[in-house]
């Protein structure tokens, strides 16, 4: 009886997850879930009415408009130019191509504070690009909303290029040749044959870039004048609330950003599934 | 009837393709597209990067080196190196453990787990810092009481900076290694096991060597990001000059205080690290590419 009981008791003990699993879950628990839980708990204590009120103060709404609006502008610009850059890298041969390829990764590698400093220097009214822009069009880039958009463009460019590039490389050239043989013009071929296949990758890259641009702090805080209702972004508002010891407001606005991140992660994953299905149909 | 379509593995000569399209009357996009691409990347990325180099060395090498006499800059550099030195090994261990645990198995929720590991990529670094404050702050934190009674100081001190760096950089390693492990087969490890190797031996002698270049790539990315982390560290550090100020925070602080030369000097150090990490990355990528080719067509030698 006893041995049988022991045998029945042992398997769960032996079925302890292997070391890699134990490390993975412990680490994730301590490093990710614990802080996440602390914030959600704090947000839950505020209560739904208070949460809604604090999340939708005019000040907060203005920062959402700046953050989410300008990030959309930036990622759409990169959606177009990122495609052009990816096309140039995959389909063309020209001198300096390797340099171009390496430069694309610079925003990933460059610390955001350095990026912010660099962009501020170039786009301020006495900078290399800021001065001509200011003199020609009266446009103030640094320390105004356009500067925030420029920083977001800088940050999110690699996402589009690096998502589109592998898909473009793997496209079947035969389809385009078939399209030409059937009498389609190069433009028709590009628009009707190539672009539809690239669409999931482009949207995926734009979504990733958008998500990153919305959350970006280091480079934006340096190029922005951080004036509320003008070019103050949501992450900076969170920091201001913390500096005023208004922890509840900071938590609420932080939770709004967290919910957005989770949502964007879901969208990016769905776009990836869509893209894979597209590629699956091809093969 | 099925038509055999060449798959990814079939090598197709690229330069020839370029010639063919030129003959088809593709002149205009052929020049226009690289031109637009180069102009765009030049304005958006290259020009700002160059401006840092030019500003840092505007008065020559001497004044640039003079910056390193600054006590604040040196202590910020030390703190940044320290945080990186702690955070990177932790994340390497986690990354390799997570990769070996996740890559080789199919289970329900695998995609979800991978998304969870990706979370720090999409959460704003400021929110990461906020989460740490809400967990460890002595007055507001969930564990604040515990931390305080133990006499520890996490927020506004180095442990907080290290924790923030760890959270922001932990996905890189796992993300680089997992796809490679998924691609490679089980066979070698099974062979090692049947020959009597322990799990640990299999990991050291079979798994790790087979992913060494991807792991190195992950290591480079993790280090580069750890050195430059700004948002999360800005929230938890308190930014006390000479004490809890990291090098990226120093760049911002110096610039805001009109110490432009110091700011560009420190930025040049960080930028130099970024360029070195990019060069290393290109090198590793080339090796990785050769490795892949060699493993795909063993007969090509």
Question: Would you write up a description of this structure?
Answer:
The complex is a heterodimer of chains A (283) and B (301). Chain A has helices spanning 2-14, 19-46, 48-55, 58-91, 97-104, 106-109, 112-123, 130-137, 145-170, 173-181, 186-215, 218-223, 234-243, 247-282. Chain A is mostly helical. Chain A has a single domain (49-282), classed as MetI-like fold, CATH 1.10.3720.10. Chain A is globular and about 65 Å long. Chain B has a single domain, classed as MetI-like fold (Orthogonal Bundle), CATH 1.10.3720.10. In chain B, α4 runs parallel beside α9 (171-183) and α6 crosses α8. The longest helix of chain B has 37 residues, at 260-296. The two termini of chain B are 36 Å apart. Chains A and B meet through α2, α4, α5, α6 and α7 of A and α1, α2, α4, α5 and α6 of B.
Beta-strand percent range of chain B: under 5%
Can you tell me the CATH class of chain A? Mainly Alpha
Summarize the biggest pleated sheet of chain A: none
Report helical residue fraction of chain B.
over 70%
Give a quick rundown of the structure.
The complex is a heterodimer of chains A (283) and B (301). With 283 residues, chain A is mainly alpha-helical. Chain A has helices at 2-14, 19-46, 48-55, 58-91, 97-104, 106-109, 112-123, 130-137, 145-170, 173-181, 186-215, 218-223, 234-243, 247-282.
Which properties best describe this structure?
heterodimer; A: 283 residues; mainly alpha; MetI-like fold; 14 helices; 82% helix; globular; B: 301 residues; 15 helices; 75% helix; 0% strand; disordered N terminus
Strand and helix layout:
The complex is a heterodimer of chains A (283) and B (301).
Chain A: H1 2-14, H2 19-46, H3 48-55, H4 58-91, H5 97-104, H6 106-109, H7 112-123, H8 130-137, H9 145-170, H10 173-181, H11 186-215, H12 218-223, H13 234-243, H14 247-282
Helix pairs in contact in A: 2-14, 3-14, 4-9, 4-11, 7-9, 9-11, 10-11, 11-14, 13-14
Chain B: H1 14-23, H2 27-56, H3 61-66, H4 71-103, H5 110-122, H6 125-136, H7 144-149, H8 158-169, H9 171-183, H10 187-194, H11 199-210, H12 212-228, H13 231-237, H14 247-256, H15 260-296
């Amino acid at each position: 009886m006893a041995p049988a009981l022991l045998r029945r008791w042992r398997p769960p003990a032996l079925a302890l997850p292997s070391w890699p699993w134990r490390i993975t879950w412990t680490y994730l628990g301590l490093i990710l879930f614990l802080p996440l839980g602390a914030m959600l708990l704090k947000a839950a204590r505020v209560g739904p009415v208070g949460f809604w009120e604090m999340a939708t103060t005019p000040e907060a709404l203005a920062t959402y408009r700046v953050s989410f609006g300008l990030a959309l502008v930036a990622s759409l610009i990169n959606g177009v130019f990122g495609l052009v850059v990816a096309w140039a890298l995959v389909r063309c041969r020209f001198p300096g191509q390797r340099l171009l390829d390496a430069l694309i990764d610079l925003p990933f590698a460059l610390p955001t504070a350095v990026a912010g400093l660099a962009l501020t220097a170039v786009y301020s009214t006495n900078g290399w690009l800021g001065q001509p822009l200011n003199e020609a069009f009266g446009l103030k880039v640094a320390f105004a909303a356009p500067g925030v958009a420029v920083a977001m463009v800088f940050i999110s460019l690699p996402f589009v290029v690096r998502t589109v590039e592998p898909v473009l490389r793997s496209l079947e050239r035969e389809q385009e040749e078939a399209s030409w043989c059937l009498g389609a013009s190069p433009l028709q071929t590009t628009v009707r044959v190539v672009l539809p296949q690239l669409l999931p990758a482009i949207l995926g890259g734009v979504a990733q870039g958008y998500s990153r641009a919305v959350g970006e702090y280091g480079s934006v805080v340096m190029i922005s004048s951080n004036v509320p209702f003008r070019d103050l972004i949501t992450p900076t508002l969170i920091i201001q609330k913390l500096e005023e010891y208004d922890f509840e407001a900071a938590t609420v606005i932080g939770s709004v950003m967290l919910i957005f991140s989770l949502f964007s992660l879901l969208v990016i994953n769905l776009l990836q599934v869509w893209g894979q299905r597209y590629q699956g149909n091809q093969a | 009837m099925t038509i055999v379509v060449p798959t990814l593995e079939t090598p197709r000569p690229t330069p020839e393709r370029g010639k063919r399209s030129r003959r088809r009357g593709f002149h205009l996009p052929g020049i226009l597209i690289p031109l637009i691409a180069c102009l765009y990347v030049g304005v958006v990325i290259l020009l700002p990067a160059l401006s840092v180099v030019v500003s840092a060395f505007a008065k020559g090498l001497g004044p640039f080196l003079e910056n390193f006499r600054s006590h604040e800059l040196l202590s910020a550099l030390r703190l940044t190196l320290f945080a990186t030195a702690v955070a990177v090994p932790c994340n390497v261990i986690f990354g390799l453990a997570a990769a070996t645990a996740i890559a080789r198995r199919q289970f329900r929720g695998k995609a979800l787990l991978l998304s969870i590991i990706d979370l720090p990529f999409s959460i704003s670094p400021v929110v990461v810092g906020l989460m740490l404050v809400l967990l460890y702050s002595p007055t507001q934190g969930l564990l604040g009481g515990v931390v305080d009674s133990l006499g520890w100081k996490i927020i506004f001190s180095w442990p907080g900076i290290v924790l923030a760096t760890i959270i922001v950089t932990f996905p890189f390693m796992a993300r680089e290694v997992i796809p490679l492990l998924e691609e490679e087969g089980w066979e070698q490890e099974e062979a090692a096991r049947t020959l009597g190797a322990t799990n640990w031996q299999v990991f050291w002698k079979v798994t790790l060597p087979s992913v060494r270049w991807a792991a190195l790539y992950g290591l480079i990315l993790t280090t580069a990001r750890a050195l430059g982390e700004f948002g999360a560290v800005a929230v938890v550090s308190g930014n006390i000059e000479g004490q809890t100020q990291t090098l990226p925070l120093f760049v911002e602080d110096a610039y805001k205080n009109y110490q432009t030369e110091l700011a560009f000097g420190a930025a040049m150090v960080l930028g130099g690290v970024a360029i070195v990490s990019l060069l290393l990355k290109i090198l590793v990528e080339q090796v990785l590419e050769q490795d892949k080719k060699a493993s795909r067509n063993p007969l090509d030698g």
